[in-house]
Amino acid sequence: MCPPYRYAMRTNIEFDQIDEQGPQDYAAAFEVPLADFLREELAGVGPVTVEVHAEQGGSEGEYSVEGRVRFTADYTCSRCVEPYPIANDSTFHVLFRPRPAGLGEMEEVEITHEGELDVEFYSERSIPLRDLAIEQVQLSIPMKPLCEDKCLGLCTTCGANRNREQCACGESVVDDRWGALQDIRVQLAKKKDI
Ligand SMILES: [Zn+2]
Ligand SMILES: [Zn+2]
After folding, report:
1. Ligand 2 centre and the CA of 163: distance in Å?
2. d(Cα 94, Cα 107) in Å, to the nearest integer?
3. Choosing a second label site near 103 at 20 to 30 A (CA), which of 4, 54, 112, 156?
4. pLDDT tens string 78-108
C-alpha cells in the first residue's frame, strides 16, 4: 500500500500517467457540501471515501476504472418524510471512452449499460476523483427512499406520522371512501335499470 500522503497529492485519474506507467491505484476522501448533490432525498451526508483501480481498457483510448465508494448519509423517507441514517459501501466499474467527434460538450450523452458496466465519454484526460465520488453517491440514492418497507407514512388528513401515532382520522377516511364507492354502485345500478 502507498503511504497516505501520496493519496492527498493524487486527486485526479491521469490517463497519460496510465499510458506511461501502467495501472494506477487511487484513494481519497472528500467532504462534499449537501447542496452540491441537489437531491431532496438527501438530508445529510458524511465524508465520501473512494478507492479506484484504473488501467487501459480493451479499445483505443478506453480506460477501465473499478472502484469502491463508502459514505454515511441521512436519507429522507419518501413516505413519512423523516430522515434515517444509512451506510453505503458499494463497488462500481466505469469504462471511459473518448468523446465521439462532433458530440458537443454540453450535449446529452446516452450512457449505455453493458451488463454491470457504465460507459462514459471523456474529453479531458484527467478525471477528478471528487466528481467520480459524487456521481457514485448520486447513483446509490434511491428514487424513493423508505425508512422501512412497512413505513406507514403520514396521515393525508392531519399530517400525523402514522409510524408514531394513531390519529383519529383513519376511520372517517375509510368511511368516506366506502361512501363514495356506495354512490358509484348506486349510479351503476341506476344505469342498469335504464
Ligand atoms: Zn418512513
Ligand atoms: Zn390523521
Report:
1. 12
2. 20
3. 54
4. 999 999 999 999 999 999 999 888 766 655 5
